[in-house]
Amino acid sequence: MHTQVKFCKIVGKREIAKNQVELLLENEILAKEALPGQFVHINIGSEKNILRRPISICDAYDNITRIVFEIKGEGTEILSKKNVGETLDLLGPLGTGFTVKKDAKAVVLGGGLGSFPLLYLAKNLTSPKVFLGFRDKEMVCMEEDFSACGPTVIATDNGTYGYNGFAINAAKEAMDDCDIIYACGPTPMLKAVKQIAMEKGIEAEISMEQRMGCGIGACLVCVCKTKSGYDKVCQKGPVFKASEVEFE
Amino acid sequence: MNTKVNFCGVEFENPVVTGSGTFGFGYEYSQYYNLDEIGGISVKGLTLKPREGNKPPRIAEVYGGILNSVGLQNPGLENFLVNDLPFLKKKFSKCKIIANIAGNTLEDYIEMGRLISQSNVDLVEMNISCPNVKHGGVAFGTDPCMVSEITCKVKEQCNKPLVVKLSPNVTDIAAIAKAAEAAGADGLSLINTLLGMKIDINSRRPILNNNVGGMSGPAVKPVAVRMVWQVANNVNIPIIGMGGIQDGNDAVEFMLAGASLVSVGTQNFVDPYAAVKTVYGIEEYMTKHGIEDVNELIGAVKPW
Ligand SMILES: Cc1cc2nc3c(=O)[nH]c(=O)nc-3n(C[C@H](O)[C@H](O)[C@H](O)COP(=O)(O)OP(=O)(O)OC[C@H]3O[C@@H](n4cnc5c(N)ncnc54)[C@H](O)[C@@H]3O)c2cc1C
Ligand SMILES: Cc1cc2nc3c(=O)[nH]c(=O)nc-3n(C[C@H](O)[C@H](O)[C@H](O)COP(=O)(O)O)c2cc1C
Ligand code: FES
Question: How far apart, in whole angstroms, are the C-alpha atoms of residue A61 and residue A55?
Fold first, then answer.
């Protein structure tokens, strides 16, 4: 059997926070195959912007795959205009996701957009401690979803909601007593996670971002530096062991 | 209907191959369809020794195309011959394998030509757009004398059909093509990417860490078609035409301009089935226009 390009009907659409769009995609195989931390590569159907856009799988259940994205540039803008009933052409699930250590004492750490891919992971953990950081109150989202998985602390950079400061600072104590840290977010945060994990001698898995071409491992444009050289984020990643990644 | 094309003595089931660097070593796309449905694949550019490539970001999107600056990251020729080629040859019986090679020195190219001669690769595609480290980084492919020397020397060592891949970043591509032909090239392929640049106006930084990169995709097609046509008018060896091919109609356009084979590159990123759909598209065109043999299309443009 060959892998197929998947056609998914949009069956739900919502703006969950400022410029943050959630789409519910209907495709049974995609939802069944999806693993936490994997992504889909979406054809936005524009002749000007020809590349597909990589978006993480936020959640998957029954025949539904949930994605959430921020409107950043032209591609995500086009994507945000797609409506319920329209069909998206996407590749996926792609890449290597998180190692789900179900019963481990886990800290789940998300920064901004990096929070989205962590939900499906958190749902698959017995008792995760979740820390999510956002720029300000307007950007905060998915608090209830995460709270249903485990104790969830929301942090805002400007203190307009929840903990005043970065999520990683809010997570300090929890990280002192945990087996594994799962993180996704801005590079400085991931770098700090790597350092903390190395110092404490605990495991950490971080999800990396890079501009992509094919999304399936054929073009070598999406690399990040690791101990073994430049590895493909779309195939070996997006989730890497923090100890493997070399920040340039 | 005949879609077979004999290219430099190698029989291709149909005229569609894939562009080097856009199709890995075939494995990834073979998960989407049987590669025996297309004529052949040109594998990622190989160098004598493994190469790490450039710092990311290595891709930028531009109007109707992309820029890339991969910098020839590859596991090295030997690794390919030992690990990837046997897989391809075992799994696919009809799909022809084109080894794309690149070097920093003349000696690299010669040695690679020699090593490949002992393998069951079907054709060699020699990328001469790379900077020549011994000659202060000037690309081999921009100087007819260097093109002549390198083609001649590699040809001496290499018993496979030798296709020279031309860079469009030159003033007179026909002159380079003629030099390659005179030096013994069996075929030509063109175009490689056009040097371009994209700057993020907010950060004032180029998107590519390498600052500049090679442009490909639909936006380059008119330039590529023109170059294929000019080259076809000046040489008698067959051509693999490429640059922005999205479908069967684009492929036919290249064939009319003078290409015997066509190559699908960037479009694979948009649609993993792009190459195989191009095969079907050519067949549809043939049916619609009552063409029995695809070879009739080669160079059949009627210029004013
Ligand atoms: C594995 C992975 C998972 C992702 N998951 C999500 C998610 O769940 N939600 C979300 O909001 N965003 C996610 N992103 C980021 C998202 O892909 C970019 O924000 C998006 O591609 C921007 O496209 P654009 O056309 O709006 O921006 P433009 O800047 O116009 O895009 C131009 C080009 O650059 C690429 N690009 C720009 N920014 C990024 C980036 N940060 N990462 C990768 N490529 C980029 C685009 O894909 C496009 O090819 C993910 C990225 C990766 C690599
Ligand atoms: C990501 C990428 C990597 C490439 N790597 C190579 C390479 O290693 N060797 C080579 O000869 N051409 C390379 N090319 C050029 C393509 O083979 C082709 O000549 C060019 O992209 C034009 O065709 P297209 O518009 O259909 O992509 C690369 C192109 C892209 C987009
Ligand atoms: S995007 Fe092509 S290898 Fe990762």
Answer: 17
